[in-house]
Design goal:
Number of domains: 2
CATH topology of the largest domain: Rossmann fold
CATH architecture of the largest domain: 3-Layer(aba) Sandwich
Order of helices and strands: EEHEHEHEHEHEHEEHHE
Structural class: alpha/beta
Strand content: 15-25%
Length: 305
């Protein structure tokens, strides 16, 4: 067994305590579960897509001796590439916005990756454009998975995340709700779950403003859209506020004992907003994208943001 064999098969956790407003119970008969993707070996859901893209590159002969893995990231995919590059014996070069947390940049460097920081004002789009330019300039040197346009990304969730959720809920889930960065998790998981249960409601989550602090998520109307993103896949969209997501992150740690990042908290926030509109019985499933350990220096933890 290698570190890559530990990707997937993550637990599904019930969140019995947390509610949209502290002290107010959820509507009767509405339960909330979350896929604990921080249990993947590098600590995030992005292990699934990174593994699929790299193994496909090897199988197709595009990733081999002498090649360096290069891509853009907001942090988590870069950490997954860095871990897997070390395990597989390939150098890794990643571009990410300079305002990414020190923990994320540090973890990548500790795995041996080269980290190139781009303008924080350009966000993930700036990192994407920089990585694409570098890859196109030296194709003989780099293997460029291009996580925003690689179908292996969403297929990893179609083939893995969705069947796991289906089995773990016994097919009883009524709603799947999830945020979008590359949109791979939402696209692949919702597509397969809808095939398994046509009556299922799938809801896409995004920040309520182009200028937000929910790391790893995109405000689709104001950004470069991933190549495999299909807005018609969602039955509905739900917007969430950064400051509310910060509060939910703190409450998840203190009320549920679950320490996760802001994108996970945004997913839970959206699921709680959804729960407020439902009458039971209903079973909502969302995604806990990553561990909060890579954001411990962020100021929102002390309530100042």
């Amino acid at each position: 067994m290698t570190i890559m064999d530990l990707v997937g098969n993550t637990p599904l956790l019930e969140l019995p305590k947390i509610s949209l407003r502290a002290g107010k119970p959820r509507p009767a008969g509405v339960s909330l579960y979350a896929k604990a993707e921080f249990c993947n070996p590098s600590g995030s859901v992005k292990d699934r897509a990174a593994k699929a893209m790299l193994l496909e590159g090897i199988a197709q002969g595009k990733l081999g001796p002498g090649k360096t893995i290069i891509d853009a990231t907001s942090g988590n995919t870069g950490i997954a590439y860095s871990m897997m590059g070390a395990a597989l014996g390939f150098p890794v070069k990643v571009f990410l916005p300079a305002n990414a947390s020190a923990e994320r940049k540090g973890i990548m460097r500790q795995y041996g990756a080269e980290v190139l920081e781009t303008s924080p004002l350009e966000g993930s789009d700036g990192a994407y454009l920089a990585a694409r330019e570098a890859a196109e300039a030296r194709p003989e040197t780099y293997f460029y998975p291009d996580q925003y346009n690689n179908d292996a990304n969403w297929k990893a969730h179609y083939r893995g995340t969705a069947p796991e959720i289906w089995e773990q809920t016994g097919g009883t889930l009524t709603h799947f709700i999830c945020g979008m960065g590359t949109s791979g998790t939402f696209m692949g998981t919702s597509r397969r779950l809808k095939e398994l249960k046509a009556a299922l409601t799938v809801i896409a989550v995004q920040p309520d403003s182009p200028f937000h602090g929910i790391e790893g998520t995109k405000h689709m109307a104001s950004t470069i859209k991933p190549g495999f993103y299909d807005e018609k896949q969602a039955d509905a969209f739900l917007e969430v506020n950064t400051e509310e997501a910060y509060r939910i992150a703190r409450r998840l740690a203190r009320e549920e004992g679950i320490h996760v990042g802001v994108s996970s908290a945004a997913n839970v926030l959206a699921a709680l907003k959804l729960a407020e509109t439902l009458e039971g019985p209903a079973l909502i499933v969302t995604i806990l994208c990553d561990t909060g350990m890579r954001y411990v220096s962020d100021q929102f933890w002390d309530g100042s943001l």
